[in-house]
Amino acid sequence: MTLAPERPVTARPVTARPVGGKLVDQFEFGLDAPICLTWELTYACNLACVHCLSSSGRRDPDELTTDEAKALIDEFERMQIFYVNIGGGEPTVRPDFWELLDYAVEHHVGVKFSTNGFRITPERAAKLAATDYVDVQISLDGATAEVNDHVRGAGTYDAALRAMANLQAAGMKDFKLSVVCTRHNIGQLDDFKAIADTYGAQLRLTRLRPSGRGADVWDELHPLPEQQRELYDWLVANGDRVLTGDSFFHLSAYGDALPGLNLCGAGRVVCLVDPVGDVYACPFAIHDTFKAGNIRSDGGFDTVWKHSELFADLRNPQTGGACVSCSAYDSCRGGCMAAKFFTGLPLDGPDPECVKGNAETAIAGERTRPGSSQDHSHTGTVRNAPVPLTLLTRRPDSPCDESPVTTGRRIGL
Amino acid sequence: MPATLAGSWRLSSSVSLRPEPFGALAYDFATRQLSFLKSPLLVDVVRRLAGAGSVDAALDSAGVPAEQHAAYLDALRSLARTGIITADHPRSSP
């Protein structure tokens, strides 16, 4: 089992799981199986979004075979993992994608899969609408083509809307419209909601993580402090009708906790299986430091989940480090581990987007970013590739001064 | 939605329970809703509902102390509201 020796965590005494009490305290100690398992089916992708958190593009020649994928689904069924989030890459480019989808459903493993929508034809939409236990999540990172395509590539806005229209026409209800919140689309939240409503979809907002290629564009794309407040206020006003994947718990430090767990679930209730069978603590932590093991070489997924040293460590209550003296620590619990790691901040300190401003000095100072330990990005020309971004080197005088449509490409996840 | 727990109840056919150290996860494949049963004893009660004939009989057979019956009935009403448990025979009046 892999335990990266360089993981900068101090040894903590092993604490016993409490009996009774709040669920979130139970979750800190981990579960017998994950609640939220993401399975990146392939690193192959027909797009090259600038913020791809798995640095996808090219298929890994070592990716799980159809039989291995089915055996993994069998294991999910045995572990009573009721549903999985399938992503990539673009999962629909795997030739056996639809076969695996059917296999999962037949084996009582519900699937929600993320897609850019290019392959959601009317025929596929009809099939999806007729299949129980399958949900679809269409990625869109701008409520206008200008904002979206700069991040995700030319034509991707139209493709996403076409897919949603196909799903709606087929009678698919409450599928998801999934948005990564960036500096350029925070002002479009109402517009995203309107688009979702138009197609009978449910809006899902998630946080831009500095993972994968996202690390390269995070400085330019992550929401500005005043936009974080705008996002928080919007979520408080609309949160009961919008999904977030619990990804904004760092914003809870503004005041009222947002709906959801408000806990880092990495290795506790969340994990990621990548296309070659590596198991990581969370979808935003594809790096050797957070690799718990491999389903091929370490005894299968169940064994990795239950017995990896990394996960055992993550299931110890964290100390909070520099954050414990902060009045908001109980709300945000120090924020996102992956965001800290990939921006080169200490894991037991504040989140890089700490709303109390406690990371500002560290972010402005010398940082050593860990870089990526895998990269499947396209190396050649990609048909829909986003236009290379001209980086803004100064901070805009106000958010309104920075047009989202000016000079550049943006990264998408 | 029934306001009382009269009659016979059971775990809904679309719901699966997964035991966990704190109790269980309950997943409804029909609604894609995940719920949490926060005590192993409550899980035992829910599993005993089918065939017990009544909620009270399930509480007794699981060994729920009498002074905790009210709290368990509250929990069961909540599970009924969310469709995790269903009445065995639909009744004409609530």
TrEMBL record, chain A:
Q: What Gene3D superfamilies does UniProt report for this protein, alphabetically?
A: Aldolase class I (3.20.20.70)
Family matches, as Pfam families: Radical_SAM (PF04055), SPASM (PF13186)
**Which cofactors?**
[4Fe-4S] cluster
Source organism of the structure: Nocardioides psychrotolerans
Q: What is this protein called?
A: Mycofactocin maturase MftC
Gene Ontology molecular function: 4 iron, 4 sulfur cluster binding; catalytic activity; metal ion binding
Q: Quote the EC number.
A: 1.3.98.7, 4.1.99.26
Span of domain Radical SAM core: 31-241
Report the SUPFAM superfamilies cross-referenced here: Radical SAM enzymes
Task: Name the residue ranges with Polar residues bias.
Answer: 370-382
Q: Which reaction does it catalyse?
A: [mycofactocin precursor peptide]-C-terminal glycyl-N-{[2-(4-hydroxyphenyl)ethenyl]-3-methylbutanamide} + AH2 + S-adenosyl-L-methionine = [mycofactocin precursor peptide]-C-terminal glycyl-N-{5-[(4-hydroxyphenyl)methyl]-4,4-dimethyl-2-oxopyrrolidin-3-yl}acetamide + 5'-deoxyadenosine + L-methionine + A + H(+); [mycofactocin precursor peptide]-C-terminal glycyl-L-valyl-L-tyrosine + S-adenosyl-L-methionine = [mycofactocin precursor peptide]-C-terminal glycyl-N-{[2-(4-hydroxyphenyl)ethenyl]-3-methylbutanamide} + 5'-deoxyadenosine + L-methionine + CO2
Keywords from the named record: 4Fe-4S, Iron, Iron-sulfur, Lyase, Metal-binding, S-adenosyl-L-methionine
Region annotated Disordered sits at: 363-413
Q: Does the keyword Hydrolase apply?
A: no
TrEMBL record, chain B:
Q: Which domain of life is it from?
A: Bacteria
Q: What's the protein name?
A: Putative mycofactocin binding protein MftB
